[in-house]
Design goal:
Length: 373
C-alpha cells in the first residue's frame, strides 16, 4: 500500500483477500504498509487488487518452482550455478559448444564426427543412439533401436569416440529403464528430448542419476510449465541440470521451430540460476541459420550451444538439412567463441533496473510528499 493509503483502504484490501479465502499478514512501516498474502496466489488476479485504492504494487515473492528459481544476493546480484559434464564446466561465465551428428550411424561416422568436433575446438560430443520419430515409416530410429544389445552397442560407439578425442558425451534417452545402462557404459550427460520434456516417469527416474541432465523445452510449453517440469527433478534433490531452448511452435513456419530467444533472456536475467543452452539446429531447421542464431543466443546469455554437424550432411540418416558441413562448423566455433568473449566484456554495461527502481521510488515519494505538503 502507498504511504498515503488510509486505514479504510488497507482494511478494504484485507477484506477482499479474506473473502477470496486467503490469510493475510500485515507490516506497517513509515514508508509503506505491506500486506502479505498466503496461499496459492495463482488463484487471484493481481490486476484486480492493483486497481483498489491505496495499492502501490503487487509483488509475487514466491514461485512455484522454488529450486529452479533465480536467487539474488542482498544487493540484487543474481547468483548462477555451474554444471560439470565430464571435465567441462558450463554456466556462470563458462561457455561450451556441444556438437555432433543428429544420430550415431556407424563407428566410422561417429569417429570422423568426433574428430571434426575436436578440430573445431568444441568441448563436448553429442549424438542420438535412439531417435524419437513421429512417423513409424521413417525407417531409421537410431543404431540403438530394437533391442537392449543394439542400444548398448550404439552407446559404446559414442563413448569410444568421445574417449578417443577427449570429449565428454551427451546422448538423448527415451526410456526410464535405460538410465542405468547409460551410466554403466560411461555416457557423461543425459539429454531429455523435446517429446519427453514432460515425461513424468522419465523425469522422476532422472532425480536419482548422478549424471548431469540437459532438459530440452517442449515445443508448446510456456516457460513456467517447463521450469515446473525441471523442478520435478530438483525436488528430488537433483542439482546438475542444464535447460535447453530448442524452439517452439509459432507463426514462423519458414523455420522448423521458432527459437524463443526472448525466453532465454528472461530465463537468464530473471527466472533461473541454472545454465541455459540453446539448440539453433532444431530451433531453425536450416543449416544456414545456425551460425547467426547461435551468435544471437550467446548475446542473450546462453552458456552452451547444442549443434548438429556431420562429416557429410548430404548423406546423413537424419536431420542432414540442418547439419553443418565441417568447413562451416570451424568458422562457427571461431565466431561463437569470440562472440562469447565480447559479450562477457560487455556485461559491465548492463544496468539492471533493481537498484534504479528503488532510487527513483524514493525520488517519487519525496516529491509526492512535497506536493501533499
Ligand atoms: C536432438 O537433439 O537430437 C533432438 C531430436 O532434438 P529435440 O528433442 O529438441 O527435437
Ligand atoms: Mn536432430
Amino acid at each position: 500500500m502507498t504511504h498515503l493509503a488510509t486505514t479504510e483502504e488497507i482494511v478494504a484490501v484485507e477484506e477482499r483477500l479474506h473473502n477470496a479465502g486467503f490469510q493475510t499478514g500485515k507490516m506497517r512501516g513509515t514508508e509503506v504498509t505491506l500486506i502479505g498474502v498466503y496461499g496459492d496466489i495463482t488463484k487471484i488476479s493481481p490486476d484486480e487488487i492493483m486497481e483498489m485504492p491505496g495499492v502501490e504494487k503487487t509483488i509475487p515473492i514466491s514461485k512455484a518452482y522454488k529450486r529452479v528459481a533465480l536467487k539474488r544476493s542482498p544487493d540484487g546480484t543474481p547468483v548462477y550455478s555451474m554444471v560439470r559434464i565430464g571435465n567441462v564446466i558450463i554456466g556462470n561465465g563458462n561457455f561450451a559448444a556441444i556438437a555432433g551428428p543428429c544420430s550415431v550411424e556407424s563407428e566410422r561416422q561417429i569417429m570422423t564426427a568426433a574428430s571434426m568436433v575436436k578440430n573445431a575446438g568444441a568441448k563436448l560430443l553429442r549424438g542420438g543412439v535412439v531417435k524419437y520419430r513421429s512417423s513409424p515409416y521413417s525407417g531409421w530410429e537410431g543404431i540403438g533401436s530394437g533391442s537392449k544389445q543394439a542400444l548398448e552397442h550404439g552407446l559404446k560407439l559414442i563413448v569410444r569416440a568421445g574417449k578417443e578425442f577427449g570429449l565428454p558425451t551427451v546422448v538423448e534417452i527415451l526410456d526410464p529403464s535405460d538410465v542405468s545402462l547409460y551410466e554403466d557404459v560411461g555416457i557423461d550427460c543425459i539429454q531429455i528430448g523435446e517429446p519427453n520434456a514432460k515425461n513424468q516417469a522419465l523425469l522422476n527416474r532422472l532425480r536419482d542419476t548422478p549424471l548431469p541432465v540437459i532438459h530440452k523445452r517442449g515445443n508448446s510449453m510456456d516457460l513456467e510449465a517447463w521450469l515446473l517440469w525441471t523442478e520435478r527433478m530438483m525436488s528430488g534433490g537433483k542439482e546438475n541440470i542444464i535447460l535447453c531452448e530448442r524452439g517452439v511452435y509459432g507463426p514462423n513456419t519458414y523455420t522448423r521451430n521458432m527459437l524463443d530467444l526472448g525466453g532465454v533472456a528472461a530465463l537468464v536475467q530473471e527466472l533461473t540460476h541454472l545454465p541455459v543452452a540453446v539448440d539453433p539446429s532444431h530451433g531453425t531447421g536450416k543449416r544456414d541459420l545456425v551460425q547467426p542464431m547461435g551468435r544471437a543466443a550467446i548475446t542473450v546469455g546462453a552458456s552452451a550451444l547444442l549443434v548438429e554437424i556431420h562429416p557429410n550432411p548430404l548423406i546423413a540418416k537424419s536431420d542432414g538439412f540442418q547439419s553443418l558441413f565441417p568447413e562451416q562448423f570451424e568458422n562457427c566455433m571461431l565466431d561463437w567463441n569470440s562472440t562469447f568473449g565480447f559479450c562477457q566484456s560487455l556485461n559491465a554495461l548492463y544496468v539492471p533496473s533493481y537498484g534504479l527502481e528503488k532510487k527513483y521510488e524514493r525520488q517519487r515519494d519525496t516529491s509526492t510528499r512535497k506536493e501533499a505538503a
